[in-house]
Task: structure prediction
Amino acid sequence: MKIFIDTANIDEIKEAIKIGIIDGVTTNPTLISKEERPAEDLLKEICSLVSGPVSAEVIGLDCQTMVKEAKILSKIAKNIVIKIPLVKEGLKAVKILSSEGIKTNVTLCFSPNQALLAAKVGADYISPFIGRLDDIGQEGMELVRQIKTIYSNYGFKTQIIVASVRNPLHVLEAARIGADIATVPFAVIEQLLKHPLTDIGIQRFLEDWKKVPKR
Ligand code: G3P
Result:
C-alpha cells in the first residue's frame, strides 16, 4: 500500500520524506489555511520536495470554474493532481479534465455509489473520508470494502485513497482490505512506527551491553 502524507506543512513533509515512507501528498483548503502562506507558493514548494502525486483542491462549485482552476493548478508542477468534490458539477469537470489528461482525485466521497460514478467519469483517485463517517456512527472502513469490491467487479482503474485517517487502526484496515493508498496525518505516521516494546527492548539491550567486559 502506498502512503501519502495528509498535510500542507513543509516541516512534516520533509521529516516524512527522510523516514523514507512517503509516496505522495494530499492537501485540502483547511490544511492549506493552517500554513498562512499563498497556496500557489506552498504547493510549488511541496511539489519540489516530492516526486509523487500532490493533490490540490479546487474551490469553485460549478464545472466551468472548477476546470479553469484545475488548469491553473496543474501548471504549478507536473505532479499536481486536482482534487474535485463529489458533486454533479464536479463529475462533469472530472470528465473534461480526464479527457485532457489532467489527473483528478475525487474527494468528499461518503457512499459506494458516489465512488462508482467517480470511476465512470475517469477519476484517477477516489477519496472516501473514513474518520468523518466514524464521527457520525457509520463504519468508515465498510465504505472502503464496498468500493474495493465494485472497482474490482468491473476492472475500474481508479485508485482508492483512504482519507480522513485518524488512527493506526484505519491504516491497518486499509492495508488489510487492499486499498491502493492511505493518506495519513503526520501524527498518525509517528504512531504507526512506535511500539512501547521496541523502546523497552532497546533500553534493555543498552543496559545489558554495559555488562559486557571491555578490553
Ligand atoms: O484528505 C482528507 C482529510 O484531510 C480529511 O481529514 O480529519 O479533516 O476528516 P479530516
Remarks:
- The beta strands are 2-6, 24-26, 54-57, 80-85, 104-109, 125-128, 159-162, 181-184.
- The CA atoms of residues 167 and 187 lie 9 Å apart.
- The domain at 2-209 is CATH 3.20.20.70 (TIM Barrel).
- DSSP finds eleven helices and eight strands in the chain.
